[in-house]
């Protein structure tokens, strides 16, 4: 899921003329960053907990899709719109979240986002039809966009120990949420499909109270951004190239995540455990493997290697679609490759232009989420019309299109290969746009 980190954008090398007080070098924070990462204000832990729950929402409904379809007499394609409504609204809202938070402030934006998630998760849990759940997931997506787009800025502003400590905390929350979302969904979903939604209500209510109590006062409010800024940003060739790549790549991402529960044939707990393995793999490679690769290879080179690997994994998923063990292996391997791609694409977006990082990330994240919204119902429709294998081959072709875009439009991406960022800057770039 991608947050735009309003107000936390770090400067690219092209913006080195910014005032020193605004962008102090990493060395200036060295003494603070040696402090223990665990010694944080209570407000930081409250926000980090809320982040875990918010990122859980990506895969929470994954294990219960077949159960929802059976319980509410819906087709697989109808149940997949639970992903589509959530991702589409999140993506569209991303165009506007920096405009909102820069005017009402980060704390109010966080609180409104959490409140919307609580209300719409509760309504989804009490729904009587799949159409109602789809609609309420859309409202959930709006709350999620407001929350995740502001959480990083607030953690950075409130954390002790310097920026690097705050970034590590945010990365840990992101990885933990992505990994345990399907597992929690499977555990609660094995009792009732309504269980995961009620679980989110309770956890988010705790987070809402914790932030209200412990995040005292208001964090620094960034300069107001223009409503049109993210739309104008997509006119930059480099950002447009990366956004188009992410749109097609995200189709592959969400076919693997949202369609696979049907051919797997497991119950809710089995699906949850499978995607727990997927999420752990994604978290490990995004945090540890991708930065090491980009330290030795150009970012475009990593993209040109990882995108074909993901396409091949999706082809293999199509081949093994009727072999449970083979499909599970493809899911886990896919998570490993997806973690690399998430991080490298996000780093690339942060380096591609001299735009404020919040603006660049908003535009990129919006397009990326829209690609994810297309994938789930398209996959089930193709599977019904052709075969279950065809859904994965459709995903593989989409990822291959993303690869072709990187190769053909490579001249637009020269700037992202200038060399690795200093570690704290690179870490911030990863999480500003990599929460998706």
TrEMBL record:
Subcellular location: Cell membrane
Keywords: Membrane, Transmembrane, Transmembrane helix
Gene3D superfamilies attached to this UniProt entry: MFS general substrate transporter like domains (1.20.1250.20)
Protein name stated in the entry: MFS transporter
Topology of this chain in the membrane: Multi-pass membrane protein
Pfam families, per the entry: MFS_1
Residue intervals passing through the bilayer: 43-61, 81-100, 112-130, 142-161, 168-191, 197-217, 238-259, 265-290, 302-320, 326-345, 366-386, 392-410
Cited InterPro entries: MFS (IPR011701), MFS_dom (IPR020846), MFS_trans_sf (IPR036259), Tet-R_TetA/multi-R_MdtG-like (IPR001958), YfmO-like (IPR053200)
PROSITE patterns recorded: MFS
Organism of derivation: Frondihabitans peucedani
Domain Major facilitator superfamily (MFS) profile: 43-414
PANTHER family named among the record's database cross-references: MULTIDRUG EFFLUX PROTEIN YFMO
Primary site of residence: membrane
Keyword Nucleotide-binding in annotation: no
Region (Disordered): 1-20
Signal peptide bounds: none
